[in-house]
């Protein structure tokens, strides 16, 4: 049966963004049984299973990952056309306040915003780098770039790019300790953890590995630097470490066991009467944030 329902595509992207069927139901103001029916209808239309679901978590099947990537692109293109029609002839001017996580902001978002600003001389851009999730309305922020979306219906969350986490360590560390051959080998390695727990669980593909943190910090940049300095193996977003992997400063281990993570999103308040500068900035970021290993 052909897949031709844009509403079902929007619903499916919402399920992936929310991280659960119940979360998607709350965000879209529908009942959980109604959400289950929508998912079944979509799977029937596609003729394949899209999600693996248990009472505790959900994960995309290979077919689900393919549909999600294509659906995001289709919906982005549709939204872009709508924006072009709505904002045709309007100039990108005024003040744009953007917040972004510290590491991602320094490495990728701030340089892109500078280039975007150069294209629009009448636009003033202010960037706040913080790992704190701000209330955008209270903080007077126009746009947030976040790893993950928002279930709050007063915000709009638009996927910008895919994301996953990788295990990585410095070449020096791996020369001294060797590469782990399978997830259970991590028990014999020095693990670097983001958080303040002595023990943690790392999801690696279908494996849930319990690790003991050799070093732990509540700041991702600290853990990143520890990995660069050869103190152990870290589980980091590919957006944080792609440049170091490309330059050889870090090396990925257990490549076949990628850890899923929520996509990179643009989040902004108010669905109606959003300033053209916000739409233009999101379009620019979406066009240049293709894959973390690509230089924009």
TrEMBL record:
Domain HTH lysR-type as annotated: residue spans: 1-61
Pfam families the record matches: HTH_1, LysR_substrate
Keyword DNA-binding: yes
Annotated InterPro entries: LysR-type_TF_proteobact-type, LysR_HTH_N, LysR_subst-bd, WH-like_DNA-bd_sf, WH_DNA-bd_sf
UniProt-recorded Gene Ontology molecular function terms: DNA binding; DNA-binding transcription factor activity
Keyword field: DNA-binding, Transcription, Transcription regulation
Similarity section: Belongs to the LysR transcriptional regulatory family.
Name this polypeptide is given: Transcriptional regulator
Species of origin: plant metagenome
């Amino acid at each position: 049966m052909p897949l031709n329902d844009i509403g079902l595509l929007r619903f499916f992207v919402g399920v992936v963004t929310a991280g659960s069927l119940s979360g998607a139901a709350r965000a879209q103001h529908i009942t959980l049984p109604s959400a289950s029916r929508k998912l079944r209808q979509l799977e029937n239309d596609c003729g394949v299973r899209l999600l693996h679901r248990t009472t505790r978590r959900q994960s995309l099947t290979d077919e689900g990952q393919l549909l999600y990537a294509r659906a995001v692109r289709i919906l982005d293109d549709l939204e872009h056309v709508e924006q072009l029609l709505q904002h045709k002839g309007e100039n990108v001017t005024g003040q744009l306040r953007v917040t972004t996580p510290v590491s991602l902001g320094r490495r990728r978002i701030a340089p892109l915003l500078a280039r975007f600003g150069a294209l629009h001389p009448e636009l003033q851009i202010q960037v706040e780098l913080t790992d704190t999730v701000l209330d955008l309305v209270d903080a007077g922020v126009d746009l947030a770039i976040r790893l993950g979306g928002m279930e709050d219906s007063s915000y709009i969350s638009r996927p910008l790019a895919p994301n996953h986490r990788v295990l990585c360590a410095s070449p020096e560390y791996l020369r001294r300790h060797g590469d782990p051959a399978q997830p259970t080998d991590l028990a014999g390695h020095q693990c670097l953890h983001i958080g303040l727990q002595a023990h943690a669980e790392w999801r690696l593909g279908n494996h849930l590995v319990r690790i003991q943190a050799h070093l732990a910090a509540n700041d991702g940049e600290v853990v990143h630097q520890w990995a660069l300095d050869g103190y152990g193996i870290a589980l980091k977003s590919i957006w944080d470490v792609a440049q170091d992997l490309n330059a050889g400063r870090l090396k990925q281990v257990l490549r076949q066991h990628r850890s899923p993570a929520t996509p990179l999103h643009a989040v902004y308040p108010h669905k109606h009467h959003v300033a053209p500068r916000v739409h233009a900035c999101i379009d620019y970021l979406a066009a240049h944030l293709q894959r973390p290993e690509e230089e924009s």
